Each structure stands twice: as C-alpha cells, then as structure tokens.
C-alpha cells in the first residue's frame, strides 16, 4: 500500500459507523483485522467496493455536499406507491398484506432492501428478518413472494437463499427512499 493521502468524506457519519461496526461483528476471525482488511472495511462502510474503488473515486472531483434532510427534494410518489407506503407502520414494518398486486410488488422492493447482496442466508435467517419486518405474522408468504418476484433466489431444497441483483424502477426507488426517511432506516438498495 502506498502512503498517499486520500481525502475521505462520510456523508452520514452515523450510517458509516453502523456499517463499519456491523462488518467488524460479522468477521469470522477472532483477532483484529489486518491493515489492508481494515482499509477495505472502511471503504465498504463508506459505500465503495474496496479501497481501490475509494482511491479511484477520490480521483474524480468531489460531489457537492449533501443537502440537509429538510432541504432534499421530496420524491413524488405514485398512487400505488402511496398505497404501499400506507401498508408500513412508523417503525418500517409491513402491517398487512396488500390486496392489489402492484402494491404487493412495491412492498416487496422495500423488503428486498433488508437483505445483503454479498451473503447467503439460511431459511431460518430469512424468516428472522421477515418476522421482524412484518406485524401481521405471515413471514412465509413474504419469503415466498420475494422468491416469486425474483428478488430473492433459493436452492431447490430451500437450504440457502440469496438476494438477486435487481434494479428497482423509479416508482419503487421513490417508495424505498420515502420509507427509509419515514422509518429512519439507512440500508443500501
């Protein structure tokens, strides 16, 4: 590693600290991370793939400072997105299963954001995440629908689940951003 100075900006220090802490907790090794591993953990917590991606990003001009929450433009929600948002409580939990398919599809995008695309989950881990994410007590339907909507995939014996790399449309992105702002959830989509 070179000893060059890299400018480092964390737009949300709290989210950065949370992400770094979570990464340190999930490390398999018992001893502290080495120099390069720690650099990569810091880079990932800041939203980069690794320290090389962080270095490449610093070669580009820095973006303008992020706007304060009250100054950010409000993303317009469609009627379906507003209906989907109404299905979640103030803590971000899904309180009822929507009747309309287009609203169900949008709710699935919100739940999709709760999973990490870099790891594999057991069925029990998926159930735990979905039980915490809903208040109506049917995590099985949610798990099945995430697979049906091609947001999660699973082995044929259901022993392993993983998040599929999908790109939400503008309607789903607006819903997820509004859901995060309302429930105080900061996860990468």
Approximate strand percentage: under 5%
- How would a crystallographer describe the biggest sheet? 3 strands, antiparallel
Q: What's the gyration radius in Å?
A: 18 Å
H/E topology pattern: HHHHHEHHEEH
Summed up, the helix count is 8
Poorly predicted residue ranges: none
Give the rounded overall mean pLDDT. Answer: 83
Strand order of the largest sheet: 1-3-2
Structural class: mainly alpha
Q: Rough shape?
A: globular
Calculate the terminal CA-CA distance, rounded to whole Å: 31 Å
Helix content: 40-55%
Question: What is the number of beta strands?
Answer: 3
Write a brief caption for the model.
The protein is mainly α and 189 residues long.
Q: How does this structure look, described?
A:
It is a single chain. The protein has 189 residues and is mainly alpha-helical. Helices cover 47% and strands 4% of the residues. Strand 2 and strand 3 form a beta hairpin. Helix 4 packs across helix 5 (101-112) and helix 4 (79-86) packs parallel to helix 8 (170-183). The chain is globular. The mean pLDDT is 83.
């Amino acid at each position: 590693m070179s000893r060059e100075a890299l400018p480092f900006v964390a737009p949300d220090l709290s989210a950065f600290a949370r992400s770094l802490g979570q990464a340190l907790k999930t490390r398999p090794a018992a001893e502290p991370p080495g120099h390069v591993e720690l650099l990569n953990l810091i880079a990932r917590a800041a939203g980069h793939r690794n320290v090389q991606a962080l270095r490449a990003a610093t070669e580009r001009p820095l973006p303008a400072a992020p706007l304060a929450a009250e100054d950010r433009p409000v993303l317009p929600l469609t009627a379906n997105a507003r209906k989907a948002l109404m299905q979640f409580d103030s803590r971000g939990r899904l309180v009822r299963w929507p009747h309309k398919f287009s609203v169900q599809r949008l709710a699935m995008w919100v739940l999709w954001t709760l999973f990490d695309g870099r790891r594999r989950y057991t069925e029990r881990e998926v159930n735990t995440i979905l039980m915490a994410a809903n208040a109506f007590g049917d995590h099985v339907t949610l798990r099945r629908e995430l697979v049906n909507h091609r947001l999660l995939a699973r082995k044929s014996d259901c022993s392993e689940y993983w998040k599929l790399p999908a790109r939400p449309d503008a309607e789903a992105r607006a819903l997820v951003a509004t859901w995060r702002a309302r429930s105080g959830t900061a996860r990468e989509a």
